[in-house]
């Protein structure tokens, strides 16, 4: 399984989303993103997810591929997390996908890392992506 996520950044902060408790991985903070569908490119998946979850209409030329990272989910399923970054010229007015997320925040990497309820492997991703020094 492949999952794509994006650090949507502006002025040293990025957007994180808080999942509703009744959703898979509920009551956790994570990046905008989701599963890459069959026959969908990683880039198409993250552009779709950004639009659905935040209202941000990304252009493929904005996407910086940070890396592909292999993890195992808490349910024992291996997956590859494809991480992207977009550095936006201005702070995006997030239009939250209310059916999936209850809240959002603009945070520094350190503020994010200090949260107690991050989605699985997010703390490791912050280090692998270079947002937090190892």
- The CATH architecture name reads Alpha-Beta Complex
Computed structural class: alpha+beta
Poorly predicted parts = none
The helix count comes to 3
Q: What distance separates the N and C termini?
A: 27 Å
**Total beta strand runs:** 7
The rounded Rg comes to 14 Å
How is the main sheet built?
7 strands, mixed
Shape: globular
What is the string of SSEs from the N terminus onward? EEEEHEEEHH
Strand content: 35-45%
Q: What is the CATH topology assignment? A: Nucleoside Triphosphate Pyrophosphohydrolase
The overall pLDDT, averaged over residues, is 95
Question: Class, according to the CATH hierarchy?
Answer: Alpha Beta
Describe this structure in words.
The chain has 134 residues and is an alpha+beta fold. It has one domain: Nucleoside Triphosphate Pyrophosphohydrolase (Alpha-Beta Complex). Helix content is 19%, strand content 35%. It has three helices and seven strands. Strands 1, 2, 3, 4, 5, 6 and 7 form a seven-stranded mixed β-sheet that branches. 27% of the residues are buried.
């Amino acid at each position: 399984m492949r999952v794509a996520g994006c650090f949507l950044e502006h002025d040293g902060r990025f957007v994180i989303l808080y999942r509703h408790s009744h959703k898979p991985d509920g009551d956790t903070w994570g990046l905008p993103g989701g599963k890459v569908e069959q026959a969908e490119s990683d880039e198409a998946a993250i552009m779709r997810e950004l639009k659905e979850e935040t209202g941000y209409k990304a252009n493929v030329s904005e996407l910086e591929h940070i890396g592909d990272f292999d993890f195992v989910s808490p349910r024992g399923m291996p997956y590859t997390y494809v991480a992207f970054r977009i550095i936006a010229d201005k702070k995006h007015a997030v239009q939250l996908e209310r059916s999936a997320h209850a809240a959002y925040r603009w945070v520094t990497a350190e503020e994010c890392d200090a949260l107690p309820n991050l989605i699985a492997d997010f703390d490791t991703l912050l280090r692998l992506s270079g947002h937090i020094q190892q």
